[in-house]
Amino acid sequence: MHKQTIKTSTIHYDVIVGEGLLTDIAQFLPKNYENVLIVSDDVVEKLYAEKLANNLSHIKNVNMTSVPAGEGSKSIDKYFELLTEAINHKLDRKSLIIALGGGMVGDLAGFVAATYMRGIDFIQVPTTILAHDSSVGGKVAINHPKGKNLIGNFYPPVAVIYDVTTLRSLPASEIRSGYAEVVKHGLISEESFFNEVLKVDLTKPLDPDVTVEQLQKGIAVKANIVEKDERESNIRKFLNFGHTLGHAIESEMGYGQITHGEAVAIGMLFALKVSQENYNISLPYNELYQWLAANNYPLMINWPGPDMLIDKMKLDKKSENAIVQMVLLEEVGKPSIVNIDDHNLRIQLENFIRELGSL
Amino acid sequence: MHKQTIKTSTIHYDVIVGEGLLTDIAQFLPKNYENVLIVSDDVVEKLYAEKLANNLSHIKNVNMTSVPAGEGSKSIDKYFELLTEAINHKLDRKSLIIALGGGMVGDLAGFVAATYMRGIDFIQVPTTILAHDSSVGGKVAINHPKGKNLIGNFYPPVAVIYDVTTLRSLPASEIRSGYAEVVKHGLISEESFFNEVLKVDLTKPLDPDVTVEQLQKGIAVKANIVEKDERESNIRKFLNFGHTLGHAIESEMGYGQITHGEAVAIGMLFALKVSQENYNISLPYNELYQWLAANNYPLMINWPGPDMLIDKMKLDKKSENAIVQMVLLEEVGKPSIVNIDDHNLRIQLENFIRELGSL
């Protein structure tokens, strides 16, 4: 069991990573609560919600609810439904929402907690690799049909309790999705971490010790950046490496057609390509490409038109004044933020799509 | 032109009160903006939006939108529509939303600003007396069918620019609604302020100098409390004087059937009554009753059942663990927070309704 404390301007909270925490969760609650709502998705609920609730039997009111699994539930409708459930279960300002699930559940239930009665406590209990990323940093959001995470808040949880035994139930595409963010944390922090990650073979059962170690490192990279820049005015944008195109692909293909991390993986390849071009340097593009291909990441996708993608990239929250901003690498471990004009972006994107398609 | 600076944990912002500020607003913007969305209601838009926009002609993109006047627009649907408009007008993280209107517009547009791309700048330009209250303190929210302001954030504006000449267009019910909050600020701060307010005759045209002075005092009372307690854990609850029953009446009668302040006026009478009973003291119940009656406040209302009201009072955000909390007065200017058990509450509410009905 490992503990890191994340410091934000408003609160400090612990991220606890370990095996079997789900059946031992009561001891990690930072306060006494009388009314708890566990929010999950319908897949995770069946696997773990009962187990979690049993461990909270000392609490007066513990209720469970779930939304359909998948990004489609990060909608204004599900958001409103969960608020209604919170009211029906009589949650008040001292109540707690537990987000049990992956990034979708964390984002959705977190935004409900952030806005219910102007903000009540919530705890993240991640059940995916991807959630090592999304559960740290205090971003909560839902999607708008015109763009991902366009509606949300900065709202930190009061704790993150990460039971890695839940990762065993993940399908292969979710393992790929989560590991893309681990790769990202390597690329923006240090080459040795990146190289370690590329040694992992995702087609075989994960070695728990390696997974825990790499998740912790990933969390540390993210926490370090988030602590220095809570509201994404500056270095926090580095975490967006691979996400500008990644989000556009995800949004244009339709959520559910490709996982978040798989789209980000393609976005990272593109960001490496643009970086090489922009700085006239060599980066481990081929190494990453080979690893992604060997691990069955979808790289030959049904590409949306470049114009649609560029429009979406402009809609990205991180873009300013309708110019696309990308995170590039000056070298591995040294990210920087660069404005890319439309003309240049279009040429590079077309070349990239052509090259990727023909490989 | 008078300026007060409100200090919150995250930002300091100015509240500027004066005559004719609407045509001189550019000089009060705290930053340069390239993209501004003015959000108003359909009544206020016709009166003032053009005037305001003309004064911002130096800004590249200025767009206007409005929702139907009335509390009914503080809905999840209008909220989502405005978010969509913000996207369509390509607002980014450096853009500005101006809330031009009363409390409804401020709450709704403020919540849009708070959650659009996880928070962009917004400025309140209040056009009602009531908004002297709602525009200060950083509370933004929309309503849920099951309760008022149940969905929202604490999110301060970057400025409040209050042009009192806009108050001339207010209907009588809106003047009553706003003045109820001025009365409240008197009752929870000091007797002399309260007594001054009771000298005002709302059935005659308001004296601008008196109005400006009393609005400023009201703002100062609120600002003083809000600065000490931003997130309503403690003394900020004092501002809820009259609101526990007031919100329940408003919600049970249906928004639009009675104005916010008119409902709060009845709630203040009830709170004075309960205070007298609870502390065995004498308070200016009759003085307030006479003033409200003389100024045409609706006091003989079509009362919802006590059970319905008590249920709503429990739903109030300020209640904790399903016990109704009320703000009482130990004396004028000395509020305190008291838990009232259901049985006692029911008896006092029934007596109050009977007495008010028969007067």
What does this structure look like?
Two copies of one chain form a homodimer. With 359 residues, chain A is an alpha/beta fold. Chain A folds into two domains: 2-169, Rossmann fold, CATH 3.40.50.1970; 172-358, Dehydroquinate synthase-like, alpha domain (Up-down Bundle), CATH 1.20.1090.10. Chain A is built from twelve helices and eleven strands. A seven-stranded mixed β-sheet of chain A has the order 1-2-9-6-5-3-4, sandwiched between helices. The longest helix of chain A is centred in the middle third of the chain and has 21 residues, at 208-228. Chain A is globular, with a radius of gyration of 20 Å. The interface between A and B is large, with 40 and 40 residues. Chains A, B: It catalyses: 7-phospho-2-dehydro-3-deoxy-D-arabino-heptonate = 3-dehydroquinate + phosphate.
Briefly, what is this?
Two copies of one chain form a homodimer. The first copy, chain A, is of the alpha/beta class.
Defining traits:
homodimer; 359 residues; alpha/beta; Rossmann fold; Dehydroquinate synthase-like, alpha domain; 2 domains; seven-stranded mixed β-sheet; two-stranded antiparallel sheet; 12 helices; 11 strands; 20% strand
**Highest CATH level, the class of the largest domain in chain A:** Mainly Alpha
**Assembly type of the shown chains?**
homodimer
**Secondary structure: helix percent of chain A:** 40-55%
What fraction of residues of chain A sit in β-strands?
Answer: 15-25%
Q: What is the CATH superfamily classification of the largest domain in chain A? A: Dehydroquinate synthase-like - alpha domain
Number of helices of chain A: 12
Strand order of the largest sheet of chain A: 1-2-9-6-5-3-4
- Greatest interface (CB-CB under 8 A), with counts per chain: A-B, 40 and 40 residues
Radius of gyration of chain A: 20 Å
Number of domains of chain A: 2
Mean pLDDT of chain A: 92
Say what the CATH topology of the largest domain in chain A is.
Dehydroquinate synthase-like, alpha domain
**Shape label of chain A:** globular
What would you call the structural class of chain A? alpha/beta
